[in-house]
Each structure stands twice: as structure tokens, then as C-alpha cells.
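In this supplementary section we document a worked example of the pipeline. Step one takes a protein sequence of length 806 as its only input; no multiple sequence alignment statistics are reported here. Step two produces a three-dimensional model, which step three serialises into C-alpha cells for compact storage. The input and output of this example are shown verbatim.
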Amino acid sequence: MLKSYFKIAWRNIVRHKGYAAINISGLTVGIAACLLIFVVIQYELSFETYRPNFKNIYHVVTQQKRESGFSFTPGLPIPSTDALRLDFPQTKIAAINLSYGSQITVPENGQASGVGDKKFTENIGVLFMEPQFFDIFPTNWLAGSASSLAQPNMVVIDKSSANKYFGDWKKAMGRSLKMDNLLNLKVAGIVEDAKSNSDLPFKVMVSFVTVKLHPKDYNFNANWGSTSSNHQVFMALPASESIDRINNQLKTFNYRHSGNKGPSKQFQFLQPLADMHFDTRFGVTTGDHMMTKTTLRTLSFIAIMIIIMASINFINLSTAQSVGRSKEVGIRKVMGSTRGQLIGQVIGETAIIVMFAVILSIVVAEVLLPQLKNIASVPDNIGLFNAGSVLFLVSVTVLVILLSGLYPALVVSGFKPVLALKNKITAASIGGIPLRRGLVVLQFGISQLLIIATVIAVKQMNYVNEADLGFNKEAILVIPGYTDSISLAKIASFKQRLLQNPDVKLVTFTADVPSSENNWGTNFYFDHSTKDNGITTYLKMADADYFKTFGLRFVAGKGYDQSDTGRQVVVNETFLHKLGIQNPADALGKTVKLEKSWLPISGVVSDFKTNTLREAVKPIVIFANKKTESEVAIKIQTKNLSATVAKLQKQWEDTYPEYAYNGFFVDDSIAQFYKQENQMALIYKIFAGIGIFISCLGLYGLISFMVVQRTKEVGVRKVLGASVTNIVFMFSKEFMILIAVSFVIAVPVAWYMMTGYLQTFVYRIHITVDIFVLTIAASILLAWLTVGYKAVKASLANPVKSLRSE
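The serialised model returned by step three reads:
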């Protein structure tokens, strides 16, 4: 019997090819989109959860309370590692010290000469590590052991780095590496690569004792008063230990060891390992990106809405077709078919269409999978199939079959045989018109929600990308360097050579560009006061040409004099506002103490965006400190840009042959701040398009149903003199009402959702009326185009045929 059901179902599908094609196309697009979303969500949720003991591993982090509010850092004071071991002997403790943008040199013939050496810049994955780290995070060792990290100048590298540096990881053991042209390291171990879904993608692991031998070179300040985000600690708890008990002890841990009694108080707490990837309070700590739970919930919501829309299409189209099958159903009932058998036939028919759509959706998803990296931070080699995705696909298939097939099956199986045989089945006898209209309202409500979200997201990102940052970011090439004594000795001569280039306008050496993700914060004293004011100020170190090169605008005073060390400082307006000073001129001559010396304020610059537009402008102090000015920023002519950059690269390599060139443009680095937001805006665009496509199919399904039900009425109206326009309007007016209702429903939901999205930005657009006007106009236009085709076709039909057929 089951075979018979599927055979008859297949014949019905072949007989109604157009109906089947519309259903299959809608379901294919919807399921493929949902499958790709599931792949992204599954990947992001899998970070660190593959580790056998991940639920008992924690990241020890710091919350700092000052009079001006709370701040969070993933780092701890360096002495805290030994203190934690003393206070919590039942746990496993391991410390790391990160080094960003380090250069790894593979010496030619074993000795670094600068000529012929292979140079690699590793932006992440380089760190100093205690051997205890591998007690917490077991790793597959290809060669060597963790004990080698107990000795100075030893390094463990992962397999892919070993292959990159030496051609074959099997040849790496015992070889030499040079880090930052400072540390001579011996390869003492090879480990398997970290998985892509790890926030600990460590590549070059130098023994921790090595950094203790070079504290100044790596800002390794071993006192309780300094907290660096580079120094991080991990703790593994016994299964019987309570995290609440540990956290209660950590509340007084810092106080007991450092005697921290001032207006700035900090305490440590445990962050679950699996939360590292999602906790925005700390930003990206050791990995290459993070994801918010809100974003994942948004993606899940979109996927659910798309599946619902695709199922609604099936319901509407199936119902529209069911009237034409009334005689078939009547005959089957007269011949003895039960309602259950008829329901089984319709469900079987639905199952064939859905399964065919699932197969096509897999093909579509497989084709689009390589493009997934453009809208999400997923690896190039991410796979479509695993146990989770197969289970998801099976669940979606069953769900869609039930959602799409159950209602049409109940409608068809409920036909009365007498009415069916006499061809008296009408919309009134079927019932459910309010439901079908409600489904169209839901469809258009979802599509309008996606349109509104897309417009707002795109407008916000346009605002972000075009915002006045308070400084000039155009055509400024930045080349990161190093601050060893040899490099510092070349600064003056290199700067002069650069300025001799006619394509170079200005040059400055700096520790940081005006807007970055760096935060070097400290407390300070103002105007010879000995009281800590509870305000954290953030530092920018640069030479005197910094202000001209980046076009910073002075509102009072001027820049400081050229000097290798800080003799004067420049502050921004926010710095003064935090101190309650309204007139910038009043601050000139006042002094600021950051470490040892009181330095006078020579100028006040207008506020510029110090970080991303998600954050408020921070109080800034700018001063000269040659020892930290590792980057050269070069303002260049835009004409023949690529040729100019090539020349500057050659000058850099000639001056610093021992270093790799890693130049970048400031505007490109700022664009990277918003990579995830731009990806989300693109996702909104894509799914708004999918939503519009599916909702138009749904609208076509309902107009098809109406045309079938009102064939005789159209014929009568034409005989009585109704024009094509009258008939088109008759069919269209109902949908205008449905769209208006869906709009009324979608607007408050969209406003609520996108207000939350905009709240993640300190600098944001306002949600204005024109966004909603654009949405309703687009919806009406799409509805007219969809309905108009079917309505015009019905109005042009010969009334004699429609009346005779009745």
C-alpha cells in the first residue's frame, strides 16, 4: 500500500509540474540556507567543548573597580601565578605571556645573518608558556615533551609551523629559531596543531622562564601594581571542587597579597573555558575572533523564520491545488478509501517533494560552502556533514513534512464525497481562508522584518565606515618594527631618507595609531595632587610629528617639542572632561604624573575615536617615548600608490634587513574592526532576499487559490462589463490589506530587535520613519508584481469558457 501511495503521489507531482517546481524551489532555498546557518552555529558553539575536561577548566580573569566605573581584563598581575598555587594547592595552575606580532627567523645554516634567513611574522599564537599548561590542556606530542619548557631558551612549535619553517616537521627537532631578533631558541618539541575551533591556537611556545630573563623587552613587570592583558592564567579544578567556593576566595585574593586599599580595587574570578569565545567584556583574548551569543540567537531566529516561510508556501500552494483534486478524492471515498488513507497519500506526496528538495538543498549548500567564509569566521576546510548536521537535516526533513503536509492532508481528506463528485467544493466548504491569510501575513511580516533589519544594519555600517574619526586615516602606510637598540639607532636616519622621497608627505614614529584595538591604561595624578582620582587614562606614545601626520586638531595649545623622552604631554578633550575642566585653555601648563615625573600639558586635541565606534572615546595622554615607538606611519601621495608602496618597502628592507616587512594602511586596519558587523549586514541582505523570494512564492500560492475559487465570479463580472483594471483591483485589494497588517506587526518587532543591535555601538544612527516607508513601499511593489501577473491572466480569460466550465 505504501508503494501505491508514493506511485500515485509521483503521478500527481508530474501532472502538476508548475506546482511542484514552486514548492521544491522554495523548500530547497530555505533548507539550504538553514543548513549553512546550522554549520556556522555548530562551529561557533564547539569552541573548546571538544576537550574531555573542558567543564572543569577556567580562565582566571580580573574585574577592576574604580570611582569612574568597572573595567575587565583577561590578565593578572604577574606575581599572582605563584600566589594562586599557594592559595589553591588542590588545583592545577598554568600561566602564559602572549607576544603579538612577533617575528620568527629561521637562520640560514644555523646562524642568523639577515641575508638569506627566512622571516615570518606571527600575529597570534606566539607566547611564553609554563610546562604546567600541558597538564591542563593535554596535547599529542610528535616529538619532545612538556618538561623541555622548564629550561630557558627552549621552544615547542606545532606541526604546521614546523613544516613552514623547516620544510618537514621531522627535521625540526634541535634546530634553531630566533624570535624578534632577540631570543635564540632551540626547538625542543613538536605538537599537533590546535583545532580550528579553539581559542588557544598556539603555534610557537617559548619556555616561560625565558621571558623572566628579558623583562624590559617584553614589558614583564613583576609587581602587584601592574596588570597586563598579556599575562593570563588558567586553572583546572578537581571534579569535586565548587566554583562558587573558589570565586568567594578569589574576592579577597588580590587584597590579601597586594594590600590593594586605594580607590582602585580589583578582584579575580573564574571564567569557564567555553565562555571565552563569547564574553565580550574581555574581547578577543588569545584567539583570532569571538562571537556573541546574541549573534547566534539572531542567526537561529532567521533560520527558523525561513523554514516557517517555506512551509507556509507549501500549505498555501497545496490548498490551492486541492480544489482541483476534489473529484479524485470523491471517487476514492466512494470506492472505500478511509480518511487515514487519504491523509497518508497527501503526506506521502509531501514527503516526496520535501525529500527531493532536501537532496537539492544539500547540493546547493555544498556548492555555496566555500563562500561561507565571506559571511562568517569559519575555516576554509569546514565540512558540511557530521553527526550533528545529519541529525539536523533529518529533524528538519521530518518537521517540514509535518508542517507542510498535515494541514493540506486534513483539508483534502475532509472533502464530502457528494460535493466533491458534483464539483461543489469551494473555499467556503474547505474553510481555512482566515488561516491561509494569516499565513501570508506571517510570511510578509517576516520578510518585512528582514528588510527593516537589513536597511538599518546597512545604514549603521555605512555610518561607521564613513564616520569622522577625528583624524586623517587616508593614504597612511604603517610599517610595524621593533624597539631593540639597533632598530632605535636607525630611526632618525631612516626618517630622513623617507622624507626625501617626493611621494612622502609626512612621517612619524609611534607606538600606536590613533584608532586601534590597543588599550594601554594607567592611573595618573593631576596638577601636583597626591590623591588618586580614580580615573584610568590611556596612553599613546609618538614623536612630535604624530599630530601633523594624522591630522589631529588642536583646540588649545600646540604639540610638544621633538624629544626622545616625554617632557610635555598632549591630552584630549575627554581627559579634561573626566577631570571636570570645561575650557581646554585652562589645562595648559597644568601637570600630569604618569610614573615618576610631572609633565606639563602643552596642548589639547579635539576628541578622536580611540577604539571602535562600539566604545566611547577614552581619555588620552600623548607623549614621546622613543623606546616604545616601534611603528613608522607614512603619509603618502595617492598617485601611483602601488609604486610608492613598493619603493617604501624596498627602503625598509634595505634599512632593516633583519626584519620582515608587514606594512598596512590605517583605513584597512580600521575596517577590520567591523569585520563581524559587516558580515552580519551581508547576512541580513542575503536572507532578506531569500525571505522576499519565498514570500512572493507564498503570495503566488494564495492568488492561485483565489483565482481557482473565483473563476465563475470573474466570468460574470466580465459579462456585466468589468474591466481588466477592476478585476486586478478586486484580487489585489485583499493583499494590500494583508501587507498592511503584516507591516503593523513587523514594525514594533523590528524596532525592538534593531534597537538592541544599535545599542552595541556608542556611535549609531537613529531609526527614522523613512526606513519603514521604504519597507512598506518595497513590500507593496513586490506584492503588485506577484499578484498582478496572476490577476491579469485571470481577467483576460474568456468568460464563456469560465461560465461553461461551471
